[in-house]
């Protein structure tokens, strides 16, 4: 965000002022605070970025909004759909911008893939398959602490859900999930999911205890897209997607599309900051975050029930 054209990082806060000062010195940030409340009391701060552990997202987003600060909060916006509903109320009451930080929605490779799907080049897009994993079995790590909102679905499975909803431009009516919980920590260490978009399918696996990997394939009636590094897109080299398309019955041509080096976090920060400065709505609205959390809620219910679970609609 420090490299952005619309964003200036003025301060950083920690529960430990020494750690805050060390980070500020290393990053060239002018102010360091020993509490989050102290930063929120700074009249020179217009907006805050919240990358705290998942279970603190709602509390500190609310506090920041009530202090008059706009908020860019890391995903997931909360632990449940009810959390997202509470933040919509906070946003409407305080009048600030609140956005969930799904940075992948800003990356040119995803915008490019979305444009190809919408152009009809793939025919009718009917299937999305995804994979996202890493290995972390440290019981002290926040991703492995259940009360902190740890586990694979909230940490990385949310990306599979979010990008499927973006590409299909709709909501799944039901979902089914197979969820494995770690005996040592109780968090979901591996989950496989199927999302039913009324004849279009999204399927994926996420895991916090498998070798690192990620990939997305979008398949249509006339072609497909493979996204090489869909989520942790490198900020120091170009990204690539691979497109195969051809008329029915012919051998597909394979095309490589390369996107210039960029940092999706810089882009995200600038888009949010510009919306604040222009008085425009947040680029990624909380209503969309609410729908994403409703899908995640249904996945957890399916993991417990062992069957299909309906996803609450926008009207409910």
Beta-strand residue fraction = 25-35%
C-alpha geometry = globular
**How many strands, what sense, and barrel or not for the largest sheet?**
9 strands, mixed
Major beta sheet, strand line-up = 13-12-11-10-6-9-8-7-14
Portion of residues within helices? 25-40%
The tally of beta strands, per DSSP, is 14
Overall pLDDT, averaged? 96
- What Rg do the Cα atoms give? 20 Å
Structural class: alpha/beta
Tally of contiguous helical segments: 8
- Which ranges are low-confidence, i.e. pLDDT below 50, for 5 or more consecutive residues? none
Order of helices and strands: EHEHEHEHEHEHEEEEEEEHHE
Beginning-to-end CA distance, first to last residue = 37 Å
Q: What's the arrangement of secondary structure elements?
A:
Layout: E1 11-13, H1 17-27, E2 31-33, H2 36-40, E3 47-50, H3 57-66, E4 70-74, H4 81-94, E5 98-101, H5 108-119, E6 125-135, H6 152-168, E7 174-181, E8 188-196, E9 201-207, E10 209-220, E11 223-227, E12 239-245, E13 253-259, H7 264-278, H8 286-305, E14 309-310
Parallel strand pairs: 1-2, 3-4, 4-5, 6-9
Antiparallel strand pairs: 6-10, 7-8, 7-14, 8-9, 10-11, 11-12, 12-13
Helix pairs in contact: 3-4, 4-8, 6-8
